Amino acid sequence: MHALTVLLSSTDSSLYDAVEGVIGSVEDLCLQVCDRPEDICRRAGSQYVALVLIHAPADGPEVSALVGRLKAGRKNLPVMVLSDRDDPEKELALFRLGVTDYFSRPLDLHRLGLAVDSHTMDARLALRFDGDLEPAVECLGDGDPFLYAPAAEMGRLMEQVRRIAPLAATVLLGGETGTGKTRLARLIHDLSPRRPEPFLVVNCGSLSDNLIESEMFGHVRGAFTGADRDRAGKFAEAGRGTLLLDDIDALSLPLQAKLLRVVDERVFEPVGSNRSQPVEARLIVASNRRLDDEVAAGRFRTDLFYRLNVVGFYLPPLRDRAFLVPHLARKFAADFAAAAGRPTPEIGPEALAAFEAHSWPGNVRELRNVLERAVALCPHETIGLDDLPDSLRGLDAEPPRTAAFPRAVTLARSKEEAERLCIAEALRRFSNNRLRAAAALGISRMTLYNKLRKYGLMEMA
User: Fold this and answer.
1) Are 326 and 353 in contact (CB under 8 A)?
2) Is it the case that residue 1 has pLDDT exceeding 60?
3) What is the rounded distance in angstroms from the CA atom of residue 430 to the CA atom of residue 414?
């Protein structure tokens, strides 16, 4: 089960910290901040928003108009106002507009917690017992938005992304290959004042040491064989923009020492030059390995690790965000169809079931490739099972069997058998009631339905 969202309209970090503690103490809730009225009105339309908190600063704009827009959009949405001063006249006017509760600072956090618990109880009970309720999916950023589910973990991560993006702090991104680290780095750039400036990437794992050094810092004519002219590196080309160093763990120790100086002193020298140049770009680094493990193994400098790990974000693999797969699949299908000048195809239920059953070892990148192939090959208006690669249709070739060596029981097969038995037991326990079985298993009714078909258990339900 995933958390419901409480939206806070405020730019006051101290208020956010206080409210975050209150929301964190209430089960099934997570806090997200919106600093623009249009954002909070747009996001409040989601059924997964259980409550809106509006900060009314003493010298800020009037909040009654925002309250009116929110109540016009969702009449039964609980809205509470957190005011910087006690103003009985304003309080009465806001109650007449439909505000659920009103608090003045300093906040009584105990009373606020009781009010939050009370006003979100119905929504939380519905989330807990409604088997048809799927996790919410929201997007962050314009143009090519970053999709995520505002559950406790990802909602908190994306809220931190919002808060850190306008700053100049170095960011360390972790996660398996294909989880979207480059996309998240681009999002941080797009959410910052640096957006009009370049966003450049250096893949540290694809070049030799000499080429990486020249790629990052540039070189002067005659610095090495073949250097027949001066060349600006990515640090210079990025200007006041953002530079992503991908696969940072692939840097050799000597190059790590040079990068440490860049991070510490904010200057660099092109290869073959003694003239220092200032670093103005924001630095984001990414790795698909845990850098603390690389430090422990002696392959990464401790001092550089701590200088780079000012703010760290870890992107979980797609198999841990399986509820995102249908949303991402539809988005990719629409993107590729638009690029080809074709209508966006639907994704059939059998294809969606195959997506759900797949473990996605290549993460979002693999899903994107599958949809690009499906859109290119699909001759119909609906992507079906036949339009997917063999690996998603269960048609991978098996090794030949011999009498001496019977077929091995793979880990994946063992997990599937355990899952099948668990589902069958839940159905028996609840007299084949799918809704109650799905709730007990912690999955939606649609997910249970797909697994029943996968494991041949439809006759039980």
Assistant:
1) no
2) no
3) 25
Please report which confidence band the pLDDT of residue 207 belongs to, taking 50, 70 and 90 as the band edges. Answer: confident
Q: Are 311 and 286 in contact (CB under 8 A)?
A: no
Domain chopping of the chain, boundaries: 4-136, 165-314, 319-393, 411-460
CATH of domain 165-314: 3.40.50.300
Asked whether the domain spanning 165-314 has the same topology as the one spanning 4-136, the reply is yes
First to last CA, the chain: 22
With beta carbons less than 8 A apart as the criterion, state whether 312 and 171 touch.
yes
State the amino acid at position 428 in one-letter form.
R
Count Cβ neighbours within 10 Å for each residue of 75-101 and write b for 16 or more, e otherwise.
Answer: eebbbbbbbbeeeeebbeebeebbbbb
CATH classification code of 411-460: 1.10.10.60
Collapsing DSSP to helix, strand or coil, 274 comes out as coil
Amino acid at 354: A
Taking only the tens place, the pLDDT of each residue in 233-260 is 999 999 999 999 999 999 999 999 999 9
Helix (H, G, I), strand (E, B) or coil at 26: coil
Q: What angle do CA 240, 245, 247 make, to 5 degrees?
A: 170
Percent of the chain with pLDDT over 70: 88
Pairing mode, strands 282-287 and 311-314: unpaired
CA distances from residue 122 to 29, 77, 160 in whole angstroms, order as listed: 12, 11, 28
CATH number for the segment(s) 4-136: 3.40.50.2300
Q: Which CATH architecture has domain 319-393?
A: Orthogonal Bundle (1.10)
More confident site: 222 or 404: 222
CA–CA–CA angle 455, 132, 137 (5° rounding):
100
- Digit-coded pLDDT (tens) for 406-450: 444 455 566 677 788 888 878 877 777 776 777 677 676 667 777
The model scores a pTM over 0.85 = no
Q: What are 68's two structure tokens?
A: 């009116």
Determine contact, residues 29/154, Cβ cutoff 8 Å: no
